[in-house]
Amino acid sequence: MSRPPTVRTAGTTEPAWVRYSLIGLALGFIFLFLLLPLAAVFTEALRKGLDAYWEALKEPDAWSAIRLTLLTAAIAVPFNLVFGVAAAWAIAKYEFRGKAFLTTLIDLPFSVSPVVAGLIYVLLFGSQGWIGPWLQEHDIKIVFAVPGIVLATVFVTFPFIARELIPLMQAQGTEEEQAAQVLGATGWQTFWHVTLPNIKWGLVYGVILCNARAMGEFGAVSVVSGHIRGQTNTMPLHVEILYNEYQSVAAFAVASLLALLAVATLLIKSVVEWQFEREQKAAAALPPERPTPAVTA
Q: How far is residue 85's CA from residue 204's CA, in Å, rounded to a whole number?
């Protein structure tokens, strides 16, 4: 009597050479388009030694760009965190008129070029824009200043958290929230003790992606920043300026810092995914609850 095929053999019916070719192609692609450029960045950054590397990072304009990048992310990510949770909760838990339109608006930054988004803010808040003259009269600077950079970053990053949470909340349904409300819980109690624990890993994952995009955004920020050295240049803009001025070592030094932040983001993302899978496996391994037998008189 022949043994039934295992999951491994049943799912891989292709010849061995096909499997190995696909694996080799994937590894070659990763090496060529990911590992090799990453190694080139660090090689060029350290080409003149560690002293030149640290000097490029300690230079006042570079330090200002680092601070501005971290400040922009520190403002944009919490804002998108609040918006993403509220939008996901409204879309996944309630039915209302205009729900499909709201979902479409959340996806808008994915379809609009970041450069176009920056031009929209210039059209609104620039000196010749719709609100620009009023802002000038009240000495309020948005375009070519930090507020414009923050607004542009918020625009290009606000779908990430909401898009991570919407399918997760829709899959979970509303039964647990309804049960909590039947038991007398308020809206905030239901959110903190029922909804938030169920979405915590999706929320962390969305925050990681949002933060990575906020620190690496170039197009929209380039339009609204004005490229004022030491004031409105973020790290990606500072790298561009240094490279255009043929300061390749300094440019690659700042670029290597961005690469390190990206690698750290990937590591945190991997840890979050591993922890989530671990909890899922632990929950699946638990024996089902047995019903309590009824007590008869």
A: 11
d(CA 260, CA 102): 36
pTM of the model: 0.81
Per-block mean pLDDT, blocks of 10 residues, the chain (297 long):
48 78 91 88 90 90 93 94 92 87 89 90 88 88 92 93 91 85 84 87 90 91 89 92 91 92 84 79 68 46
For residue 131, give the amino acid letter: I
Q: What are phi and psi of 247, to 5 degrees?
A: -95, 70
List CB contacts of 262: < 8 A, sequence separation 6 or more.
Answer: 212, 216
**How many distinct helices (H) and strands (E) make up the chain?**
17, 0
Task: Return d(Cα 258, Cα 252) in angstroms, integer.
Answer: 10
pLDDT of residue 292: 47
Nearest to 108 by CA among 166, 151, 157: 157
Given CA atoms 228, 64, 43, 210 in this order, what sign does their dihedral have? Answer: negative
| Contact (CB, 8 A) for 191 and 116 | no
Number of other residues whose CB lies within 10 A of the CB of residue 117: 22
3-state helix, strand, coil in the chain (%, to 5): 75, 0, 25
- Sole residue written with tokens 């922890």: 275
